[in-house]
Amino acid sequence: MEFGRLFTAMITPFDNNGDVDWSTLEPLVEYLLATGSDGLVVAGTTGESPTLKTEEKLSLFKRVKEIAGQRAFVMAGTGTNDTAYSKELTEKASALGIDGIMAVTPYYNKPSQEGMYHHFQTIANAAFSLPVMIYNIPGRCIVNLEADTLLRLTELPNINAVKEASGDFDQIAYVLDKTPDNFHVYSGDDSSTLPIMSIGGTGVVSVAAHVIGHEIKSMINSFAAGETVKAAALHRKLLPQMKACFMTPNPAPVKAMLEQRGVGSRMTRAPLLPLNEAELKQLEEWFSLA
Prior knowledge:
This protein has 12 helices and 8 strands. It is of the alpha/beta class. It has an 8-stranded parallel beta barrel, surrounded by 6 helices. It has a single domain, classed as Aldolase class I (TIM Barrel). The model has no long low-confidence stretch (mean pLDDT 96). The longest helix is centred in the C-terminal third of the chain and has 17 residues. Belongs to the DapA family. Its main location: cytoplasm. One of its GO terms (molecular function) is 4-hydroxy-tetrahydrodipicolinate synthase activity. Its EC number is 4.3.3.7.
């Protein structure tokens, strides 16, 4: 099943009391689809998943899919560092009509490669026939899902993609070389989108698409159409804005920018803090200079 090229790792909107702002969810989804997103990842890291209750996650999965319908590929973020809980959440999410599962490498407890294989195998089985995208991000999770472990996992019929944020282009190239054409490698860093596509990757699971979705989609489409010079120029132009989206811990900057555009508020859940006025002014200046 084709996923599309531009996924947005969607924020979870909160109101001033710190509750999920259900009234903002539909405008947010419509905004992201209108600005180029082919798919949405719900309750991932950018969605502040560590602070979401299970009931909130399941309600978000269901509601986002109801809003998006067939217009976007909706993935549920069900991976944690607890295999049994990830299995249970994946089973419940898979019954809600969503299109796929995203599962991050287990964080903090530093499992072995065999432990990670077992973890993702369990999640893939719990997803029934739904596609599973593995998320490899050693900078946050400490552990790196090594290429040979991932290749073993691709032998499972529904592990169809990886979101790569290791920054190891040798590893990424090796995976691309050894996997079939219907296995998809996505960049997990906005700034690595074009470099990963240049060695055979499919696209990106983006944070910056919340604010520069059209521009990122144009870069991706240009490269896919063989317009490499144009794509490279867009990449260079967009880099400062991509970097600005991480001036403080994600997703505070993109939430602040969305607030400026009338889509939700800048509110986050502790321990993350929303941008203060000085930080917001700096962010606006960086975007105005881009």
